[in-house]
Amino acid sequence: MNKQLYINEIQALFDDVQRSKIFEDQKMMTDAVPLFPIAEINAKYQEEKQLENFDLKKFVLYNFDFLGAKISIQREDHLPIEEHIEKLWDELTRTAYEEKGTLLKLPKPYVVPGGRFNEFFYWDSYFIMLGLQVSGRIEMMENIIENCSYLIQTVGFVPNASRTHFLSRSQPPYFSLMLDLLFETTKDKNIYIKYHDTLEKEYAFWVNGAEKLENGSSSKRVLKTINGDILNRYYDAENEPRPESYLIDIEDAENAGEEFYRNIRSACESGWDFSSRWFADGENIQTIETLNLAEVDLNCLLWHLEATLAKSSSLQNLSEKENVFKEKAENRKHMIDKYFWDSDSGIYRDYHTKKHATTSSEHIATLYPLFLGLANEKQAESVAKNIEEKFLYQGGLVTTTKKTGQQWDLPNAWAPYQWLGFKSMKNYGFDDLAEKIKNNWCANVERVYKNTGKLMEKYDALDIETVAGGGEYPNQDGFGWTNGVYLKLNQN
Questions:
Q1: How far apart (Å, rounded) are the C-alpha atoms in residues 294 and 350?
Q2: Could you tell me where the DSSP H helices lie in 92-137?
Q3: Greatest CA span in the chain, whole angstroms?
Q4: pLDDT for 293-335, tens place per residue?
């Protein structure tokens, strides 16, 4: 049965399953594959749930398939870490040549993160590609790009992950950086020409609605400041509880502000779910206000997309288009300085569109202008100083300077930002600091691997005796982006 499942088609049953907590992980039910036509399951459910001895879990297990819900990596022998990762590439490889339950069809094989994440994830895939490059797995790098292109061409953007309930949001737009990575590997400029149309389509998604904006207003992923400048923000088209965290959202929504669900979902588009970065009071998820913010990381990534479109236009002698995108990129570079640079503290921050000022949150996305070469020497020096003093610990770089129990806050060190930190420091000649970032995190990864035989989704940068925690779900093992970044850092 190849019918695509949209959660709202089984809403009554889904709601009952999630509220009853028959599964420990709320993601279980979103990944379930119906074994019978949906109408038949719904009719059976309405009829059988009236029975005195009705067992909800038994009903669900009879009507849905849960195969492959979680990836567990077991090894009899404790291999050296690099060999373990080489084996993991194959174990984390999946195909989805047909629609199955909520899983979207994709034309090529792909690498999943691992643990409970058994589908294609957008920004994870870039950091996975760093490791594939080191491993010489060029074909899989090309597959990932091809899958992203297919999604952009068919649904208009790359969803957060390849499931139907993620069709309301994307993730940080790394497609243009994926092309750079493949070009770095193959030296074939035609890659930019081949995917020029895809780059344009993705760009159209992120700037959709910009032309109609009044000063001080916003629409979808774009906003216009009171000065008439266009910036971008993370956004989600839905204002409902997330199916994969359904009950958590419903419980968190009590005493929360307006559009709570959309603010929650919009933070998920950033990949940072969740962090004090999004909270008005810096502490509580109920005060989440993602929609009021323009983010430094997103605007830097869109600068890169504009610059890449200028390059792909130039390669085809489309001089008019080249000039348009060059101008857009130059303008955005100016806006990044104007709205995100905080000269008082010497870091880049997000911009609050209602307060017309930068936010108070100190976070690791301050690295993006250095990662992409947009900072001047003085700015880079200030950021490097802050990174060393406030973000770098024995076990790597933390994401924020605040401890809230949220997983994208202190003390957790996540793989993407170790690579961004290393590369940012290298770009501006802070080689000693780059080495320190690399060594601190890699030693932490090696220690946990030695003790557990696993590569984790995130690590504790402060307490290097334990495994990291905090967040909506337990730490996962696998783990795609950790594998990729570890290999790439050790190659440098």
A1: 6
A2: 122-134
A3: 73
A4: 999 999 999 999 999 999 999 999 999 999 999 999 999 999 9
Closest CA to 487 of 30, 135, 103, 248: 135
Q: Among 67-76, 118-127, 182-191, where is mean pLDDT lowest? A: 67-76
Show the tokens assigned to 303.
């600068």
**Assessment of whether the complete model's pTM goes beyond 0.85:** yes
Q: Are 413 and 461 spatial neighbours (Cβ–Cβ below 8 Å)? A: yes
- Per the listing, tokens 């020409």 go with 193
Asked whether the beta carbons of 134 and 127 are under 8 A apart, the reply is: no
Predicted pLDDT of residue 463: 83
DSSP state, 363?
B
Average pLDDT over the chain reads 95
Angstrom CA distances, 24 to 19, 244, 358, 474, stand at 11, 12, 39, 11
Residue with tokens 């300085």: 337
Active site residue 322: no
Contacts of 230 (CB under 8 A, 6+ apart): 207, 210, 213, 222, 223, 224, 335
> Any idea how long the chain is?
492
Catalytic, out of 273, 297, 306, 362: 273
Q: Give which of 233, 214, 211 is closest to 222, Cα–Cα.
A: 233
Nearby residues of 130 by Cβ (< 8 Å), 6 or more positions away:
181, 419, 484, 485, 487, 488
Distances, alpha carbon 66 to alpha carbons 2, 100, 109, 203, 472, in Å = 16, 11, 21, 36, 21
The token pair at 359 is 């936010």
CA distance 12 to 478: 34
Residue with tokens 């995917």: 195
- 269: annotated active-site residue: no
Per-residue pLDDT at 1 exceeds 90? no
Candidates 324, 215, 245, 253; CA nearest to 18 is 245
Cβ contacts of residue 475 below 8 Å, gap of 6+?
A: 456, 457, 458, 467, 468, 469
CA 421 → CA 3, 42, 104, 114, 440, distances in Å? 44, 50, 33, 24, 12
Closest CA to 333 of 364, 360, 372: 372
- The DSSP bridge pattern shows strands 110-111 and 93-94 to be antiparallel
Q: Are 265 and 395 a contacting pair, CB within 8 Å?
A: no
Catalytic residue chosen out of the listed positions 142, 457, 460, 477: 457
